[in-house]
Amino acid sequence: MDLTHSNYGLSASKEEEENTTSPVASEPTSLPTEDPGNPLPRAVLRLNNHQLLDGEWKFAVDTEDHGLRDGWQLGHAYQHTAQWPGSVEMHMATAKGEHSPVAWKDKVVVWYEREFALPERDDEQAHSMLQLTFGACGYETRVWLNGHLLQTIEGEEVHYGEYTSFSYELPEEILHLRNRLTVRIADTMDAETPRGKQESHVYKRGGIWYQTYTGAVRSVWLEMVERNRLRSRVGVVSVVEDQLVRFNLTMRIHDPGHYIVRLQVFGQESEAAEPLAVSDFPLLLEAGQHEQRVVMELPGAELWSPASPHLYRLVAQLIDADGYAAQIEAYFGLRKIEARGCYVYLNNERIYLDGILYQPGTATYAEIQRHFYAMKELGCNLVRVHIAGVDPRIYNLADELGLLLWVEVPSPHSSTTRSRRNHRAELLRMVSLMETHPSIIIWSLYNEDWGAQDIAVNRKTQQYIVDTYHYMQLAHPQFLVVDNDGWHHISYHGRLKSDLLTAHLYTPDANRWRELLDRLVRGELEGTAAFPLVVGDPFFYRRQVPLLVSEWGGFGFPDYGGPQDDAERAERIRLFKEELRARPIAGDVYTQATNIEDERNGLIDPQTGELNVPAGLLASGPPPAPSV
Questions:
Q1: Given the DSSP bridges, would you call strands 178-188 and 166-169 parallel, antiparallel or unpaired?
Q2: CA dihedral 42, 44, 47, 48 (to 10 degrees)
Q3: What is the pLDDT of residues 428-475, one digit of tens each?
Q4: Which residues contact 78 (CB under 8 A, 6 or more apart)?
Q5: Model's pTM, two decimal places?
Q6: Pairing mode of beta strands 312-319, 257-267
Q7: Which of 48, 80, 433, 619 measures 20 to 30 Å from 558, CA to CA?
Q8: Listed residue (444, 523, 519) closest to 486, CA to CA
Q9: pLDDT tens digits, one per residue of 121-140
Q10: Residue 272 to residues 267, 276, 327, 330, 336: CA-CA distances in angstroms?
């Protein structure tokens, strides 16, 4: 299996040659054994068999949106084919005999269809059922099996979102030896839809606004799963002082009764070794989906950090009354992140965040891997993944490399009650699938007011962000949370509702750079960034919260100016970095890692991953001693 396949949201996907299959089904076959290299775009491993449905699908554009009315799910004469995964835009272009993505206005509705043979099931799979999973698909997805509308495990007839996976349990009574799978995908330019830096009615393509890529953007697969099981999501919250690990588990139950959740923790080095810790948790479970937090002690546990990215392997089993065990596996690390005074502390030690802004755009999975290694070579210990959905395996890579991650919710482009509802739903979906990773330390709710344009004056917008910040503090204390990155942070009764006070500062002039940094560390909240740094009621900085320059540089982008020659750019970066480190600032994020569309300010070749500037350029030495 080709692990360089592109399997992530907002990506121009490429055909996976080995798994390309005809939409016409053959005789029933057994599911192939899962590749130990984790070929599926998910972070948690399930030791079962799967069958990728990637490859050639029948394809049609529903120009007038008559497909539902005319019953296309019951049968339709498709005139085109498309490679799944791939973007709607590329599929529409291919259907028209074009090579470039097709821009669409207002709304797009497309249909996909293929057949698959019913996999054989042996005696050992008597406890199992067939599950269909979409790695990501959006923004609005309906799925039919043999003409029957399916519901997701969460009970949705229409799934909304395009950045996370969702699954369907396939009812035995509607499965045939040969099965027809039909998918309808719809999207609009609606500014209330979370879309990050993709174009919309409000923000058109050009400059920092990118070509829209939507639709069938990640793999889709069949797999046998147990009727009663742990779902493929594990939350990890560690308390390093007490050597405790809290695991958030999600159970899917069809047969109510008594169960045992058994957790075993192994060292990363050897799968054959005895577990370092084992613990059982008896539970009485009704039918449905349940979330449960359980706690284990790991005496003598090593902590995870960029300098020593030590990981443990969790084997979690749900054991029924007959002794049958359904199992998942995940890697995790113990670490603590804290914003304290002027600085950020990792595992109770002060750390300076040497960051870089990263926008994967249409990069393939293999290219993203090369970019991560290159960012590490640049001397970065932090990567800010900028309002985009990426292949979940990338978070595993960051865990292994020791790269800290700052992730963000793809933002809507207007501030309304509905856009906030969509934003919260996207956040909850993302967090539920991403809270395993020690590498993820920071979440941004918004960036530069996108989707919260009235943040300075609208109490409803401010209250939503305050409530969401409080929710994240309570439900996910393993993360730092930024309310609105860049400026317009919210103060409520004099307390900043952001763990970090961040500023976006762009200037190519060294003297102006020194002036802006001096204003920032003096706590001058107005006149430093493009807009006031704090809104709401008065907030007095007084070194209460760490300062981060979370965007700077951008040298080579026309709107920001500065050097475009690589040698001069490297020298300017060194100078600007020295000024940052001479002040009580907790970290910085250089803009940016690679070129993307109109933004020609990258330090890394987008295809090869080679550096255009010297290695170690963004690294800094130990932080200066705090002033007394």
A1: unpaired
A2: -40
A3: 999 999 999 999 999 999 999 999 999 999 999 999 999 999 999 999
A4: 58, 59, 60, 111, 113
A5: 0.93
A6: antiparallel
A7: 619
A8: 444
A9: 776 667 899 999 999 998 99
A10: 10, 12, 17, 16, 29
Tell me how far apart the alpha carbons of residues 546 and 500 are, in angstroms, rounded to a whole number: 5
The string of DSSP letters for 405-453 reads EEEEPPP-SS-SHHHHHHHHHHHHHHHHHHTT-TTEEEEEEEETTTT-T
In angstroms, rounded to a whole number, what is the distance separating the alpha carbons of residues 463 and 415?
Answer: 13
Alpha carbons 301 and 398: distance in angstroms, whole number: 20
Q: How far is CA 225 from CA 129, 221, 291, in A?
A: 5, 12, 18
Distance between terminal CA atoms of the chain?
Answer: 58
The contacts of residue 312 (CB under 8 Å, 6+ apart) are 265, 266, 267, 268, 276, 298, 301, 331, 332, 333, 334
Sequence letter at residue 543: R
Q: What is the pLDDT of residue 338?
A: 98
Cβ atoms within 10 Å of 93's Cβ, excluding its own: 16
Query: pLDDT value at position 27?
Result: 38
CA distances 230 to 36, 39, 227, 434, Å, are 20, 20, 10, 16
**Contact present, 576 and 539 (Cβ < 8 Å):** no
- CB contact set of 298 (below 8 Å; sequence gap of 6+): 243, 244, 245, 265, 276, 277, 312, 334
Residue 131 and residue 167 in contact, taking contact as beta carbons nearer than 8 Å: yes
3-state SS class at 471 = helix
Q: Report the 10 Å Cβ neighbour count for 24.
A: 11
The packing angle between helices 459-475 and 417-434, to 10°, is: 10
Q: What does DSSP say about strands 148-149 and 220-226: parallel, antiparallel, or unpaired?
A: unpaired
Q: What is the pLDDT of residue 8?
A: 29
Q: SS3 for 485-548, per residue? A: ECCCEEEECCEECCCCEEEECCCCCHHHHHHHHHHHHCCCCCCCCCCCCEEECCCCCCCCCCEE
- Are 498 and 534 in contact by the 8 Å Cβ rule? The answer is no
Tokens of 83: 């490679």
Which residues are CB-neighbours of 481 under 8 A, at least 6 positions away? 442, 443, 444, 445, 469, 472, 473, 498, 499
Structure tokens at 448: 């530069």
